[in-house]
Design brief:
GO terms for molecular function: ATP binding. It comes from Agromyces soli. This is ABC transporter ATP-binding protein. Keywords: ATP-binding, Nucleotide-binding, Transport. It holds the Pfam family ABC_tran. Helix 4 runs parallel beside helix 6. The chain folds into 2 domains: 210 residues, Rossmann fold (3-Layer(aba) Sandwich), CATH 3.40.50.300; 127 residues, no CATH class. An 8-stranded mixed β-sheet has the order 6-7-8-3-9-10-11-14, with helices on both faces. By secondary structure, the protein is an alpha/beta fold. It is built from 9 helices and 14 strands. It is globular, with a radius of gyration of 22 Å. A hairpin with a 2-residue loop joins strand 9 and strand 10. 25% of the residues lie in helices and 27% in strands. The protein binds adenosine-5'-triphosphate (ATP). The site of adenosine-5'-triphosphate has 13 residues, from strand 1, strand 2 and helix 1.
């Protein structure tokens, strides 16, 4: 049974080591992630950062080497074969990048949904027909019910795929690059459709993607770097001084249970941090200075620090970097700017090693 206080997705110190030809690859290196019931979260990161590995574990298709992975009350590291089948049929829904993996090409949209409902065994007869109609309606593809995937556009196919993923009434929806084969405008409309589904059905949703624009469609974007969650961006709305609603994006570094954090690449590069850093505990923040030989010693603080920005209660204790209007968030504006969570999604950024300088 699910503990009501437990998040729908919980990863603690999750490790996945692959061995190939005697070489070990640590795809996940102690990843921590917590997604509350009903939340919609995007996971972004450079190629090879471990996104697909995480999703494959959460979908029950692979098992982690160590750590904790729990989804809607199921312990994914210890569950047996029978529980795993039930988990995949009834607890989670999947949307993959390739339509061929989501839909059977020789069945119509409605037949694809009917098949998914039959496999899950959740509805029959009139109830099944009604559920199919409701889902196609919700995804705005009702008029294509009798078309096969090959007769639909890429965006329409993904909308039908979302309907199929929802057919078994899952508590958690997992999407791997659902917009990977779509143009920008179609991607935006598919992500909006997912947001509507999340809001209307309350299904917990995790989207793994390279697409940096995803952060415009979700309240929370988590960045993975080198097999660990490194930063997250939270979007919210606030009233400005004229009482007008303004979208705000704030970036936080993720602090794990033992106090590790990853310093952003631009901070490390800007201060030429290497190997070790000096730390100082101030009343309301931690200072980090270059620690290599010849580096100047820390300067005493000259002025009072700014008021800390309001933050979300999600643990483990993120540290705010800067609050900025959402429209400005993707731009890097020097050392203190809030970078776009997808910015490291460029291959160069991801290939660089994680800095050792992170500490708190
Ligand atoms: N089956 C496997 N055997 C060996 N190494 C693997 C295997 N699967 C993944 N890896 C390695 O694990 C690391 C993480 O891979 P993963 O596919 O999770 O990254 P990703 O962030 O999803 O990348 P992409 O965005 O390119 O799909 C990579 O170094 C990859 O080469």
């Amino acid at each position: 049974m699910t503990d009501v206080a437990e998040p729908h997705i919980l990863c603690v110190d999750l490790v996945r080591i692959f061995s190939a030809d005697g070489v070990e690859v640590q795809a996940l290196q102690g990843l921590n992630l917590r997604v509350e019931a009903g939340e919609m979260v995007a996971v972004v990161g450079a190629s090879g950062s471990g996104k697909s590995t995480l999703l494959t574990i959460l979908s029950g298709l692979d098992t982690a080497t160590a750590g904790v992975a729990r989804v809607a009350g199921h312990d994914l590291l210890t569950m047996g074969g029978r529980e795993r089948v039930g988990y995949q049929r009834r607890t989670v829904g999947f949307i993959w990048q390739q339509t061929s993996r989501n839909l059977l090409p020789y069945l119509t949209a409605a037949e694809n949904l009917a098949l998914a409902i039959n496999v899950a065994g959740t509805a029959k007869g009139g109830a099944r027909a009604q559920r199919i109609a409701e889902l196609l309606d919700l995804l705005e593809v009702a008029e294509f019910a009798d078309r096969r995937p090959g007769e639909l556009s890429g965006g329409q196919q993904q909308r039908v795929a979302i309907a199929v993923a929802l057919a078994n009434g899952p508590r958690v929806l997992l999407a791997d690059e659902p917009t990977g084969e779509l143009d920008e405008a179609t991607s935006a409309s598919v992500l909006e459709a997912m947001r509507r589904v999340n809001e209307e059905l309350g299904v917990t949703t995790l989207i793994v993607t390279h697409d940096p624009t995803v952060s415009e469609h979700v309240r929370r974007t988590v960045q993975i770097r080198d097999g660990r969650t490194s930063t997250e961006v939270l979007r919210s709305t606030r009233l400005d001084e004229h009482g007008a609603e303004q979208a705000v994006a704030e970036e936080f570094a993720v602090l794990d249970r033992v106090g590790r954090l990853q310093l952003p690449h631009d901070f490390v590069a800007s201060l030429e941090l290497q190997e070790r850093v000096r730390l100082a505990l101030e009343p309301d923040h931690v200072g980090v200075w270059p620690g290599h030989e010849g580096a100047p010693p820390p300067r005493p603080r000259e002025s009072a620090p700014p008021e800390p920005a309001p933050r979300e209660p999600w643990p483990p204790g993120p540290s705010p970097r800067e609050s900025a209007p959402a429209d400005d968030a993707p731009r890097r504006r020097g050392r203190h700017a809030a970078p776009d969570p997808g910015a490291d999604a460029d291959p160069d950024a991801g290939d660089r090693p994680a800095p050792n300088g992170g500490a708190a």
